[in-house]
Amino acid sequence: xxxxxxxxxxxVSRSFGIGPVLENVSFEIAPGESTCLIGPNGGGKTTxxxxxxxxxxxxxxxxxxxxxxxxxxxxKMAYVPQHIRFDPLFPVNALDIVLMGRLNHLRFGxxxxxxxxxxxxxxxxxxxxxxxxxxxADLSGGQRQRVLIARALACKPDLLLLDEPTANIxxxxxxxxxxxxxxxxxxxxxxxxxxxxxxxxxxxxxxxLCVHQHVHRHPVxxxxxxxxxxxxxxxxxxxxxxxxxxGQGDHSHCDHS
Length: 257
Fold this sequence. Notes:
This protein is α/β, with parallel strands linked by helices. The chain has helices at residues 45-53, 94-99, 113-125, 141-154, 171-184, 197-203, 225-232, 237-247, and strands at residues 7-16, 19-29, 35-38, 60-65, 77-80, 159-163, 189-193, 207-212, 214-219. It has one domain (7-223): Rossmann fold, CATH 3.40.50. Helix content is 32%, strand content 22%. The radius of gyration is 19 Å and the shape is globular.
């Protein structure tokens, strides 16, 4: 019996005022799979995540998460944005932020001991066990990002979506997070926006999704510094995409005259 994909995009397009951001996108993610989204700025990676979350709807096509429309599957997902906006004067500490991931367990205006235990464990997972009661505004940019990852983990999701989670994190902390992500893969699927080859290797062994208006799979084994430069170079990525699709049997971008 075939297993249904946890993520399914079928002929999805999405435009904004500047024109099409994603066009005729189709792909599937099977249960237990994790992968990274790579591609140039403005290529549609964040839009792809927002479609998965149901924060925006496609202009045409169909998006399914766990066999349902995204809005019905949100309790199974958690999301870590690349940037956050917050009021630095708001009196909230790191533990308070993480507990926001347990709001659906709030009873009579209070969190149970199990919720607090989960929040502490998640802070420990990202290396911030000793910062639980520090004001969020006093934390560095990298520490805030780690708190947001801990908040996402507190939801106990089946699918974790992350948008450049290590962008503001120093190398020593990133090394610990790499091990954390490798462990998380064992109990949930992870979809992560990244261009870091070391990070990609901890998320997936098989393929990445190259996103630049269209989406195609690219084997991880074929990624190298030169290939990454092709994918991100405005001068070379059109030819890179054509060659990749050609190798996968899609000749829609070829000129076979």
